[in-house]
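ok trying again, last paste got cut off:
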Amino acid sequence: MARFALVLMSSLVTISLVAPAQTIQVSRDNKTIYVTSEGEAKAEPEIAILSMGYHAWSKTKDALFDETAAVSDKVVAELLQAGVKKEMIRTDKTSLTHVEPELNWPADWKTNRVFEAELRWKITVPVKDAEGVVAIAMKAGATELSDVAWDVVDRTRLQAEAGQNALGKARTVADSMASGLGTKLGALVYASNSAPIRPSSWPFFSGLNTSTATVSSGVIGTALPPKVIKLLPEKINEKTTVYAVFAIE
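nice, full thing came through this time. structure:
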């Protein structure tokens, strides 16, 4: 999709573009075509971001704490043994709270669910290892797989490709407009792009240069369980909008 504006004006005016804090001044001697164009780029995912957890109840706080700590130690130890890098495992949530029973709870729940514990991890692994890592974590004691997100290691590169595609589309539209006016398209005099802000949650810690980031090369050293949950990754689609101003002769 592309939108455009042709400016052929004798008096000096100022155009305020949608892009943040940018203005273009045009006059009879500065004839321009302004085009807004959208572009996208797709790529196969390189990493899987697994949301896994442990959820349990107990009569006593101490018993539940010990049980949760034991599961946490075992899950993390098994993942590390499997070859998952420590920096790619992050605790997403941890809680141990007293539970107020609901009126409609059965008697055994009221007796045994006095305290509740929740523990969740975010685990980043290569796509090819995602199924195996889920199986290993579940076998080690995890009780929940709540979500799987897919991404590429260098999202900036994909954003740049989307911007390049959008700018190419903008140039094509502007060139067609110039031809229709019996003139030629000149140089690009201004361009900006508006891409979605990358979520700050990847890969769950700050300071990583995503242009050079790596993840573990593969699951190693651990035999996989005989059954795994099939995970079907989806392509990553990056979109951006380019605002471009071209001179015309």
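cool. The first strand starts at residue 2 and ends at 7. The CA atoms of residues 41 and 161 lie 6 Å apart.
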